[in-house]
Design brief:
Layout: E1 2-7, E2 16-22, E3 35-42, E4 45-50, E5 53-54, E6 59-60, H1 69-82, E7 89-94, H2 98-108, H3 113-118, H4 121-128, E8 133-141, E9 148-156
Parallel strand pairs: 4-7
Antiparallel strand pairs: 1-2, 2-3, 3-4, 5-6, 7-9, 8-9
């Protein structure tokens, strides 16, 4: 597995870092290697995108040997922390995909927003790392007044942790 991080500003590389996860050659799809994920760390905020899909078919990979989203998220998170990044928040910017779908399903089922956000994939990853406080920092509400077309969420640690 190839994983690299680089400081965006050489003078203060610990405040701005990027990490990329490339799926190992032995896990290539049809002999083609692909990037499995990317994470950005800036001003204490960690955000990531996981790319565990076949670009030919636009479908998520389900091969047993392909690393899971949880594994890749953990690798990227640990890479940023290992490079000296002090993560103060995990950011979710959702305008499509499973996080937004799950959030909207739970909201339709009348689950409170914060609780629903914590039950998404990113929310679960955040909780495992102690980020259990939810704050909506932007987004576009659907006309139904319940679900979201897009939403930006910040997961932080409770005060004093």
């Amino acid at each position: 597995m190839l994983l690299s991080s680089s400081g965006a500003d050489e003078k203060d590389s610990k405040s701005s870092l990027d990490a990329w996860y490339k799926v190992p050659a032995e896990h290539s799809v049809d002999g083609k290697e692909f990037w499995g994920g990317w994470a950005s760390f800036k001003d204490g905020n960690f955000s990531s995108a996981l790319y565990i899909f076949d670009t030919k078919t636009n479908q998520y990979l389900t091969k047993p040997q392909t690393p899971t989203g949880r594994e890749i998220f953990g690798i990227l998170y640990n890479e940023i922390v290992g490079a000296g990044g002090k993560i103060e928040a995990i950011i979710g910017n959702w305008n499509q995909g499973t996080n937004l779908e799950r959030l909207n399903k739970l909201l339709r089922d009348k689950v409170p927003f914060d609780e629903a956000a914590l039950q998404t994939f990113t929310g679960g990853q955040a909780q495992q790392r102690g980020f259990t406080k939810v704050k909506r920092i932007g987004g576009t509400l659907n006309p139904d007044g319940v679900t979201w077309q897009s939403v930006n969420i910040e997961f932080t640690r409770p005060s004093g942790n």
